[in-house]
Amino acid sequence: MDINLKVKQGLRIRAFYLFFIMSGIQIGVGVMGTPKYIFLDAQQDSWISVLMAYAAMLIVLWVMLLILKSYDNADILGIQVDIFGTWIGKLLGTVYMLYFAFVLLVVLVTYIDVVQLFIFPQINTWLLGFLLLSLVVYCVAGGLRSIVGVVFLFFILSHWLLLLLAKPISLIDISNYQPVWQASMIDLLKGAKSTTFTFTGFEIIFWIYPFIRNKNQVWRPIFLGATWSAGIILLNTLIVIGYFSATQARTIEWSVLSLFKIVELPFIARFDFIVVAEWMMITLPTMMLLMWAITQGMKRLYHVPKRITLYAAALIFLVVCGFIDEHHLIMALNNQANSIAFWIIFVYPLALLPIVKLKKAWQSRSKKGAKR
Amino acid sequence: MKRKNQRKKHKDDFFPKKIDELEQIMQSKFENNQDLTFTIYEQDKGQRAAVFFIQYMVDIDQVKEYLLDPFLSSQDAWSTPSLKNDIPIADQATENTLEGILKGLLVGKVYIYVEGEDEALSYFLLNKKHRQLSKAENESVVLGPQIAFTESLITNMNVVRWSIRSTDLVMEKMMIGHKYPREVCLVYVKSVANQTDVNTIRQRLEDLDVDDVEDSTILMQLFSDSSSSMFPQFYATELSDRFTHDVKQGRIGVLTENSPSGVIGPSTFFSFFESTEDMYMRWNIGSFLRLLRFIAIIFSIFITPLYIAAVTYHFEIIPTHELITIGKSRAVVPFPPLFEAMILEFLIELLREAGARLPTKIGETIGIVGGVIIGQAIVEAGLTSSILIIIVALSALSSYTVPNYMMGASIRIIRFPMMILAGLFGLIGIMYGACFLVIHLVKLQSLGRPYLAPVYPFRMKDLNKALFRLPLQFQNRRFLSFRPKEPYRYNRQEARRKHDVDK
């Protein structure tokens, strides 16, 4: 397996789009429910937890870029093979892919659950799964460039929802934030850990990096993208804390969606229906990028044509998602994803960096030795 | 000597022939046809020559005045070189194959063959009947040139040449169709147009293996990128100013013989919503008109499905007092909202189709009968609600704001799957349709260039050509997404400079 990828010039994308890829994959189903889970740990200081998670994410992103920059044009699959050898490297790559598949499944069933909760309680899970997966398949079959295009357009087409938040913002009770700094450091860290699942997705950088055209400019869009998604999560957390009372914030499921219930226009009485439908445009980019990563991984590790992986994976997801239709099961899966993601996306890169650096140093030393 | 040797190599040379033999061959080719005029003239010295042509393809007056008169009054012995001198027509050529002669006869050439010569002389004295240039009827504009293309390629080329007076304008002719060949003309400005695009379109045209091309619009479908898509990937226009404007900006035009529409490529999705009028208007008004059209399209696609979704599944989203009105007007309607809307949309499509097929005068009557009388009767009979009539009429009206007829048709057809989706899955169905459309548009290409440019791939500097307009001093760039050879139209600093006060 080649450690570095050769990507045709026509298939590469501008670093500019990393902003949209970052926020497209990070802002997904997680945002809808996270404020509640952070609130359970850190109470009215939840927003500090979000900021802490944001700082941690920036550090990890920086570490990821350090790792990637020690190679010419490699992705995480190639790097793992380079460092741990073919067998362990491929095994780790497979684990990474299974993790992606798991996250994709969780996103899929969570969105279906939300639709069933808010709009159609009776609708068949398989039917909704088929609708969503058919869109994913149709888009991913167009290749990375069309995925990035769709991510970009969906970003623009869905962000008008932010304007609707003006109404709940105007109803915020400032006293809900007080007193500040009540939560202990442990609680704050616990709260920060609960945000992991929302922040997942930025590990896609590890996969997409070889496809970037202008690599010297990657940091800014990545940084801004991470800041944007963290900003949106922070905003939503702040509004949830301020708008709901403490008991409500602790008990209301999908509290962010509930924020939109109060919004009203002369011709539309209940906005939450439209918001839940519109959320499809927020969920799909996550699923598309994850699906692309799975097809890319299968191609890299096992030389399976992307189309075959795509159809097979979609079929498996479709079959599996129909069996996961219990709300508590989905919540359990979300928690599970949260804890797995914490290890894979936050801890793993930090552990990988010293190994990569050591190996590189050792390589350059032995090269020098050979020259002498 | 050398020349004779060369000649001998071509054993299948048609000439020299006896005149009688030639006449027989020609008559046999035009069996049962009285089209061919084959006249044999004889000089005093016994030398014979034949003049033959198809009567209605040539200009008889010219044949008599410029060809036959000097030919017959010539005092010298006839021979090909002497005739070349005697006959005062510039467009002459020689021909020595039967196939070439037959082809030439069909495009209006007159042939003279002197017995015993190696080749026949041909003169191009075409008499082509064509319609006078007239006002554009299908794409009407208020301001700007009204002239529309006609079915004659020569006339269209003349019109284009007059608008682009530059030696850089290239008009490449090629023949397409192996059974009924037809002239197709590739038009581009060589110093501006992207060479890759020119090569691509030329390649696609040359690779076409069809028996016949009936019209530009069919040619357009033959070389389009995706044949399964509902959207047109090339802009077909009958307005010559639209055509020349796009060619001047570096796009490539295709004109076809006997077709009154020119095809422009590569085209973007947004170019189908711009009219030349936006440019002739002042920039702020032009921007407004363009914005209006985009809003109209979104409105047209989504408003009826939204009604269906809201009334079928999500009546919570309708405010209470409006819900009462809708409920009242729907109380007598026996159908579910989907059928109700389908009936009305179907009616509107019927009216449009009937109006387009019927002669203009009857068409207007149909409009009044359909719109006013049937509409009112349907509501009174309780088949649909009156609110839905308003919605459907508005959405039909909005769809007609699209300047391009083909895109307008696509937009109208898209509504039907959208309505079905809305009827089946409510808001989720509408969202599904919208997502599908976006993905589809992102994947589409026109001549290998992204269809959604400049929105994706995003290029800020091109937005003012697609979504809105800016004052002319900011319009100094060409459409960069298609990589023209010369990106600038004029100097930006010059354009923005202002005189000092009171100068």
UniProtKB/TrEMBL annotation, chain A:
Stated membrane topology is: Multi-pass membrane protein
KW Mitochondrion (keyword) present: no
Entry-linked InterPro entries: Spore_GerAB (IPR004761)
> Keywords assigned by UniProt?
Germination, Membrane, Transmembrane, Transmembrane helix, Transport
- A cellular component annotation (GO) from this entry: membrane
Q: Which family does it belong to?
A: Belongs to the amino acid-polyamine-organocation (APC) superfamily. Spore germination protein (SGP) (TC 2.A.3.9) family.
Record NCBIfam families: 2A0309
Put simply, this protein is called: Germination protein GerB
Source organism of this protein record: Lentibacillus kapialis
From TrEMBL, chain B:
Give the family per the record: Belongs to the GerABKA family.
Ordered alphabetically, the record's keywords are: Membrane, Transmembrane, Transmembrane helix
Per the record, the GO terms for biological process are: spore germination
GO CC terms for this protein?
Answer: plasma membrane
Keyword Transmembrane helix tagged? yes
Broad class of the protein's primary localization: membrane
Output the lineage of the source organism: Bacteria, Bacillati, Bacillota, Bacilli, Bacillales
**Keyword field contains Transmembrane helix:** yes
The scientific name of the source species is Lentibacillus kapialis
Matching entries from InterPro entries are given as: Spore_Ger, UPF0353/GerABKA_families
- A Pfam family name for this chain? GerA
Classify the protein's membrane topology as the record does. Multi-pass membrane protein
Protein name, UniProt field: Spore germination protein
Span-the-membrane segments of this chain are 291-311, 385-406, 418-442
Report the locations given in the UniProt record.
Cell membrane; Membrane
